[in-house]
Amino acid sequence: KTALQMLSVMAQARVELNAITCSAAISACEKGGDWEKAVKIFGAMLQTKVDPDTITYNATMSACNRGGRWMKVLELFGQMVQRNIQFDIFTFGAAISACAGEGQWEKASQLLSLAMQRQDANTVILSAAISACEKAGKWEQALWLLRAIARGNMKMDSISVNATISACEKGGEWE
């Protein structure tokens, strides 16, 4: 609440809001588990002609992801594309994790391909894509992604290995 109160005080004092201040407030909402207020602040930014940047989008996507609003995360990702806002590894992480939470393995794979083209892929992003495959029972794709981690000389972690094992189990490929 304090972050939101500060924004209100700033507005009353006619202090101009900027992307940094709004991003901090959105991050506070995310940490507090209030994705709706994060989206409200983001919307207010757009209405007051404060241009959101990569950090603002990432914070809002993270808040929505935490709130289980994967479609909103993808909507924000789409806005970044339309507005030509620079992506970073956190952008891809939030979007792919949102897809993973819902088992949207095809969308996660598309985003992963884009991240890999831009050389923004890491173990965390690949693990999130593996989790999406695991939830959908797509063991072949999960196994391929695990091998991609090894081929890319990235450090495998227990999350990616366990998700791949679980995907193989769901697909009846236990041998």
The Rg value, from CA coordinates, equals 18 Å
- End-to-end distance: 53 Å
Q: Mind summarizing the main beta sheet?
A: none
Strand proportion, as a percent range, falls in under 5%
Low-confidence stretches: none
Q: Can you count the helices? A: 10
- SS class: mainly alpha
The tally of beta strands, per DSSP, is 0
From the spread of the alpha carbons, the general shape counts as: elongated
The mean pLDDT is: 84
The share of residues in helices is over 70%
H/E series, N to C? HHHHHHHHHH
Concise synopsis of the structure shown:
The chain is built from 10 helices and no strands. The chain is mainly α and 175 residues long.
What are the key terms here?
single chain; mainly alpha; 10 helices
Topology, please?
Layout: H1 2-12, H2 19-31, H3 35-47, H4 54-66, H5 70-83, H6 89-101, H7 105-117, H8 123-136, H9 139-151, H10 158-170
Helix pairs in contact: 2-3, 2-4, 3-4, 4-5, 4-6, 5-6, 6-7, 6-8, 7-8, 8-9, 8-10, 9-10
Please provide a written account of the structure.
With 175 residues, the chain is an all-alpha fold. α4 runs parallel beside α6, α6 packs antiparallel against α7 and α8 packs parallel to α10. The longest helix is centred in the middle third of the chain and has 14 residues. It is elongated and about 65 Å long. The mean pLDDT is 84.
